[in-house]
């Protein structure tokens, strides 16, 4: 591979990591999400022009931020709003010092001191419809494409694109402050924020598209933001429950793929590779949620399910009957065909594949599952266990057609071949 090609690959990698932070930091400076995205893109273009010759800088994130800042100053100086905007941005935008970004953090610090968390709360403002809050935050914080978000929502791509555009326009027109709210307003937005964090985590845990099964940086970012939120709201049971859920699930990362990147099913994983520190932290967070009276919350129930797996030293030790019972309660708290599908998997382990298939067949025609590849994958697995191999092959092939993740597609086609 040529040095220029290596540089372009490095730029792509840096951009995936730095894009959310860059947009969040620029939004705090310019108070305009759309403008922040434009400035971030300009900085990326500059990197693509400069780095192949000059090399990747020692601190690429700071380089991108400084480049975007200079572009912002140029824009404001040639705009009739220059005086107003420069007053808002402050003296650091006028400075080209390498420590400008850090100085701005100190000058504009608040209770949380985290740009990404501010951006999440801004994106989850109640003025926006719930689906727009999630889509916008996944776009800005998770760095997901419109297509990836559409697949996560089981929705049409143009629909998601329109939601994002309208959400940014609404925030700009309403003059929503870029801040973490306090008091009742914070509580009002907390449920949306938790939902967004979990969706970001899930995109990292099981990537909807691409060549990799996982995007670990998204999992890490969701957990990091969740921990900050837990410190901010120490008496909120569901915040601790969500952190516990994400930590326990993330503990399996090293065991979820083989040396070639192919997925390894939960029951086949080498549990000695599970991260015991994350498990301990996750169980402690779940205990905290229970102590706060939140045992029946949706995230606490999911964390309790994850804890059943974490506590089983071997796959055969798993308490599948308890997991199926927890899914039944979860289905009552938050009715969903996806939850029922997960319950069917637990039932297959506790009672056998016939009982699981019976449950799956009651939900398989739900419109929300029409393009959900896991429905066909799970149904194929049940049919295979029942010896109905021709039917199983068709289901696995259907699942492979629907997934955009190359690792999953390869695995599902392998199952189809095996019958």
From TrEMBL:
InterPro entries: DUF6596 (IPR046531), RNA_pol_sigma-70_dom (IPR014284), RNA_pol_sigma70_r2 (IPR007627), RNA_pol_sigma70_r4_t2 (IPR013249), RNA_pol_sigma_r2 (IPR013325), RNA_pol_sigma_r3/r4-like (IPR013324), WH-like_DNA-bd_sf (IPR036388). Residues 19-80 form the RNA polymerase sigma-70 region domain. Residues 121-170 form the RNA polymerase sigma factor 70 region 4 type domain. GO terms for molecular function: DNA binding; sigma factor activity. Gene3D superfamilies: 1.10.1740.10, Winged helix-like DNA-binding domain superfamily/Winged helix DNA-binding domain (1.10.10.10). GO terms for biological process: DNA-templated transcription initiation. Residues 189-289 form the DUF6596 domain. PANTHER family: BLL0085 PROTEIN, BLL6612 PROTEIN-RELATED. NCBIfam families: sigma70-ECF (TIGR02937). This is RNA polymerase subunit sigma-24. It comes from Devosia epidermidihirudinis.
């Amino acid at each position: 591979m040529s040095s220029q090609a290596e540089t372009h690959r490095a730029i792509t990698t840096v951009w995936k990591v730095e894009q959310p932070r860059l947009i969040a930091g620029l939004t705090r400076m310019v108070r305009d999400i759309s403008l922040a995205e434009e400035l971030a893109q300009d900085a990326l273009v500059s990197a693509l022009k400069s780095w192949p010759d000059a090399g990747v800088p020692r601190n690429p994130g700071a380089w991108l931020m400084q480049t975007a800042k200079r572009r912002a100053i140029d824009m404001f100086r040639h705009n009739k709003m220059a005086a107003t905007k420069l007053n808002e941005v402050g003296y650091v935008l006028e400075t080209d010092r390498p420590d400008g970004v850090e100085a701005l953090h100190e000058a504009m610090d608040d209770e949380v001191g985290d740009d990404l968390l501010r951006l999440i709360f801004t994106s989850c403002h109640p003025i926006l419809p719930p689906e727009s809050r999630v889509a916008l935050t996944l776009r800005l914080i998770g760095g997901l494409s419109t297509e990836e978000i559409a697949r996560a929502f089981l929705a049409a791509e143009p629909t998601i694109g329109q939601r994002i555009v309208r959400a940014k326009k609404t925030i700009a027109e309403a003059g929503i402050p870029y801040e973490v709210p306090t008091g009742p307003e914070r509580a009002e937005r907390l449920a949306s924020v938790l939902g967004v964090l979990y969706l970001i985590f899930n995109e990292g845990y099981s990537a909807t598209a691409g060549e990799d099964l996982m995007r670990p940086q998204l999992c890490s970012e969701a957990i990091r933001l969740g921990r900050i939120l837990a410190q901010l709201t120490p008496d909120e049971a569901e915040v601790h429950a969500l952190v516990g859920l994400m930590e326990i699930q993330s503990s399996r990362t090293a065991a979820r793929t083989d040396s070639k990147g192919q997925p390894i099913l939960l029951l086949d994983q080498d549990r000695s590779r599970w991260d015991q520190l994350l498990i301990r932290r996750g169980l402690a967070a779940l205990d905290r949620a229970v102590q706060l009276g939140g045992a029946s919350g949706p995230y606490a129930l999911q964390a309790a399910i994850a804890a059943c797996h974490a506590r089983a030293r071997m796959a055969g030790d798993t308490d599948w009957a308890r997991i199926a019972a927890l899914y039944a309660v979860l289905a009552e708290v938050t009715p969903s065909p996806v939850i029922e599908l997960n319950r069917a998997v637990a039932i297959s382990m506790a009672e056998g594949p016939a009982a699981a298939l019976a449950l799956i067949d009651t939900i398989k025609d739900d419109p929300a599952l029409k393009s959900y590849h896991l429905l066909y994958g799970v149904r194929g697995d049940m049919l295979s266990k029942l010896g109905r191999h021709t039917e199983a092959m068709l289901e696995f092939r259907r699942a492979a057609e629907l997934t955009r993740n190359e690792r999953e597609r390869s695995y599902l086609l392998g199952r189809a071949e095996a019958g």
